[in-house]
Amino acid sequence: MTRTVFTQSMQEMQEEMLSLGSMVEKAVARSIEALRTQNVELAQQVIEYDEHINAQRWKIEENSTLLIATQAPLARDLRYIFAVMHIATELERMADYAQGIAKLTLRIVDEPLLKPLVDLPRMADIGRELLMEALDAFIEQDAERARQIARRDDEVDQLYEQVYRELLTFMISDQRTVPRATHLLWVAHNLERIADRVTNICERTVFAVLGDIEEMG
User: pLDDT tens for residues 26-78?
Assistant: First the structure.
């Protein structure tokens, strides 16, 4: 394989990763919209679409493995390919969290929400924003930007703590709210984990660019 063909294969792998990222970002958005509007059909769509996301993840891993096996790339190219494989895994896990939110929605769809949702959608918005920025930083091979994005995980953590305290107050004041509040706590947990996965992507970016392993969480 000539260097030109190798470069093209790397470009295709990169585009497949960005496509997966877009699929995951949409899944997160739709899962929260399904919860906010208690939309059963939309929640079902998120659950069913997870198969397509899984397939895209495996496609990336297979193509990456083939590229390593046939071309034996060295140094930075090898780090880049390994990073893409790890990022694809992180993205697939994020989609699992979105699917989990959709499943939780189906469990509480027959009951009114405890209150209009504000902080949970905000957590999702920040997580989606950070996800797309993290992928941009990886494509640009910008280690410093990746570090800056990872630091914004604190915004999601603060919202999570706020949601936790608020839902705990509901449960203490009225035990009848415990099942609904518990499900919303799991939603918040999933959103917090999505942001943690973004941090992992940022760590992989630094590794791909500099060859250094940095703990950012």
Answer: 999 999 999 999 999 999 999 999 999 999 999 999 999 988 888 777 888 89
Q: Which class is domain 3-210?
A: mainly alpha
* Tokens read off for 82: 């390994």
Total residues found in the chain within this entry: 217
For residue 215, what is the DSSP state?
A: -
Give the integer Cα–Cα distance in Å for 36 and 72.
48
Give CA–CA dist 118/129, Å, rounded.
17
Count helices and strands (H / E) in the chain: 7, 0
197's CB contacts (< 8 A; 6+ apart) are 90, 91, 93, 94
Q: Are 82 and 74 in contact (CB under 8 A)?
A: no
Question: Interhelix angle for 178-210 vs 119-140, to 10°?
Answer: 10
**Residue with the two structure tokens 């518990």:** 182
